[in-house]
Amino acid sequence: MPFVFAFFVVLVLFATLVLARTIRIVPQARAGIVERFGKYRATLQPGLNIVTPFVDRVRYVIDMREQVVSFPPQPVITEDNLVVSIDTVIYFQVTDPVAATYEIANYIQAIEQLTMTTLRNIVGGMDLEQTLTSREDINRGLSSVLDEATGRWGVRVGRVEIKGIDPPPSIKDSMEKQMRADRDKRAAILTAEGQRQSAILTAEGNKQAAILNAEGNREAVILRAQADRESAILRAQGEGQAIQTVFQAIHDGQPDQALLAYQYLQMMPKIAEGDANKVWVVPSEITKALEGLGSAVHEVSGIPKHTGGPRTRVDMGSMERVEVGGSDPSLSKAHQDVKDAIAAAEASAAGGPISTPTADAPSSDAPDAAPPAAGPPSAG
Questions:
Q1: How far is C-alpha 53 from the chain's CA centre?
Q2: Does the pLDDT value for residue 347 go beyond 60?
Q3: How far apart are CA 117 and CA 97, in angstroms?
Q4: Could you tell me if 379 and 328 are in contact, meaning their C-beta atoms sit under 8 angstroms apart?
Q5: What is the domain partition of the chain in residue ranges?
Q6: For the segment 29-48, what is each residue's pLDDT rounded down to a tens digit?
Q7: How would you label 346-375 residue by residue, b for 16+ Cβ within 10 Å and e otherwise?
Q8: In CATH, what class is 65-167?
Q9: What is the Cα–Cα distance from 208 to 219, expressed in whole angstroms?
Q10: Angle at 224 (CA atoms; ends 223, 227), nearest 5 degrees
């Protein structure tokens, strides 16, 4: 009985081992390489697969997805004998798992070494400036060489990227200084061009402003001269018309000696009204002053002492003809005062006594004549 139980246990274990060796599960995007007695037999696809136990063996499981490998910086010498460090990134995918297993021992290491040698060949024909500015050319050259070499390994290189190109520290410092000097030069050039453009525009603006100011001054002078000319013409015409009007009014009014004496007496208070006249001396002998006045008035040639007939008073507002000596008592009184003053001056000159006439009683020495014109004094 114990022997039977032990045999049964051994049989179950053997069946389990055989089943485990027979059924193989391959994950998605993987491929299994099966060998029989050390020789390639088949490639297992993703999923459940059955192999011959103890005869077939799954040696490799190859990842069929696209993979990314970053290689460490590699020193590369340029054409101008400068050592630069270049980092590369390779994107590849296994297309033939059998070739990737049996054509190359380690395809990742092979790709790395091939990348290094190809990169040195490409960069060795470029100087530092071209190396730094020709990354696309380096990528295309690497991709073409690697894709052609790795095709027989069952590997397809999809993309090659240059992560970084690091020149030596001294070269970096020199490049920074050169770049700084170049930018300073461009900044100085742009500043000079800006100042030149500004000066040109400022000069053009000043020129245009000067031209416009000159034109404006010329037009202003012309207009001012025309205005002065028209003003002088109008002023002369006004003065001429005023003189003609006054002259015509004087002739129409027919003035006599009494009117001129009255005008002279009216001007005497105005002499004292000026601000510059601080002191005004009144003559002590008023009779001699009146005598001189009377003699001066009598000596004016061409003006009659008395005129006969009615007089015409010039009124610029209504131009009405008014007979003097009629209805205006104030004008008659003023005219009578003038006649009394003239009579007193004549009597004083003759050596007679000076009478003091009043407004109500006219002097008997006043000559009998027609009433003189009592209109407003003309502005002669």
A1: 91
A2: yes
A3: 25
A4: no
A5: 16-62, 65-167, 254-380
A6: 899 999 988 888 898 899 88
A7: bbbbeeeeeeebeeeeebebbeeeebbbbb
A8: alpha beta
A9: 16
A10: 85
